[in-house]
Specification:
The chain is α+β, with helices and mostly antiparallel strands. It is built from six helices and 25 strands. It has helices at 29-32, 63-75, 200-217, 241-248, 334-343, 348-360; strands at 2-5, 16-18, 25-28, 33-35, 41-50, 90-99, 108-115, 126-133, 139-146, 152-155, 160-163, 168-177, 190-195, 223-225, 230-234, 252-255, 260-264, 269-272, 277-278, 281-294, 297-299, 310-312, 315-329, 364-365, 367-370.
Length: 371
């Protein structure tokens, strides 16, 4: 058996990703911010999936499925009095969807379905007409259609195989929007842009770029940075909001983000931002390996003796230490930081522990995010 100290053994292959990008990147406003009044709204509904090949809910274990089946048949004018249903071709599901901004009645959206009972697979099923409601309880869409399941499962008498998830799926373009949101874009007096990555420098720069556009087109400033996430744009007189938004979202500005190091300990992924700096620090990295080998020896008794065959233990212990190099790191920029870590032969799993140690020592001038 082998014991290893000072080095992590990860279950997956480690990937070392470095974000070597300029400190400030030019981006369009539409790519870094979204319109507050143009956000999505979540919809939810309860429905039934039929047409399953014996992989549906067992009605005794999922009584709500049987109740829903009886209610649906009664609405269709079919009497369900007398006798218990033992159908295994139906499953109760929860249906979810996102209502896009400015959606109009008649347009279609995708929906996602997930099993609520003990169904083993939704493959080949069909979602029966299901109403989708918003947080206000109003019905905004109706969903129906064939369920697409990416996973599959197969089993025999002594073995089974499953790939992916078979108890959830999607219905592409399966919902038709029946009601539009009450808010009207044209009735707004101002526009509020929300940064996807809040930052005061980016918000102020966005407001400045919009004001330069406003002075050229309308003769005055029209934008103000409210905080690190929101920029408010006042509607100029006689301006069309749709055209105004189309012009503003194509303005190019310089974005800025705080220095950040993102570490995923499960996969060994490391992402280091360009603005990451470290103070001068000494780092030692090495690996101690202890190998224990058992080679028992069989001992035979002397001829014509009353002895018995015995096993004599024989243990060999070998200890070795690799690395142990000490390096002085002065990360004035990302290139020098990575070069310093590579100079002592550190692999991604070792870099994770080194960065955590540097952060604990107070020498890492960046936010350390662990996932």
């Amino acid at each position: 058996m082998i014991f290893r100290f000072g080095k992590w053994c990860l279950a997956f292959a480690a990937i070392f990703a470095m974000a070597i990008a300029p400190a400030e990147a030019a981006s369009r406003i539409k790519d870094i911010a979204s319109l507050q009044s143009g956000r999505e709204n979540q919809l939810i509904g309860y429905g039934l999936v039929v047409g399953l090949q014996g992989t549906g809910d067992s009605l005794r274990s999922s009584p709500f499925t049987e109740q829903s089946l009886r209610a649906m048949l009664q609405n269709l004018g079919i009497s369900t009095q007398g006798g218990d249903s033992r159908s295994k071709n139906i499953a109760a599901v929860l249906v979810t969807a996102n209502l896009p901004p400015f959606a109009s009645p008649g347009s279609r959206i995708d929906v996602t379905v997930g099993s609520l009972g003990d169904s083993t697979s939704l493959r080949g099923g069909t979602l029966v007409m299901t109403s989708l409601s918003g947080a206000d309880g109003q019905i905004y869409a109706v969903a129906q259609g064939s369920v697409v399941v990416t996973g599959f499962s197969a089993q025999g008498a002594a073995a089974s195989v499953t790939q992916g998830v078979t108890t959830s799926g999607r219905v592409p373009n399966g919902a038709i929007i029946e009601r539009e949101l009450p808010a009207k874009f044209k009735d707004a007096f101002n526009l509020v842009l929300q940064l996807r990555n809040p930052d005061f420098s980016t918000a102020v720069g966005m407001a400045a770029a919009i004001n330069r556009y406003g002075k050229t087109q309308f003769g005055g400033s029209i934008a103000e940075a409210r905080d690190s996430q929101s920029v408010v744009i006042d509607k100029p007189k006689m301006a069309d909001l749709s055209r105004l938004m189309a012009d503003i979202e194509n303005l190019v500005i310089e974005t800025d983000v705080p220095a950040r190091v993102v570490i995923n300990e499960r996969t060994g992924t490391i992402v280091i931002g360009q603005d990451v700096r470290i103070a001068q620090v000494a780092v030692s990295y090495g690996t101690l390996t202890v190998q224990v080998t058992e080679t028992p020896t069989v001992v035979q008794p002397a001829p014509f003796s009353d002895g018995v065959t015995a096993v004599e233990p024989n243990t060999t212990i070998d200890a070795s230490q690799d690395g142990g190099t000490v390096a002085i790191l002065n990360g004035s920029n990302l290139r020098s930081l990575v070069a310093g870590l590579n100079s002592i032969g550190v692999k991604p799993d070792g870099i994770i522990s080194i960065l955590q140690g540097i952060k604990t020592a107070g020498a890492l001038q960046a936010e350390l995010v662990l996932q």
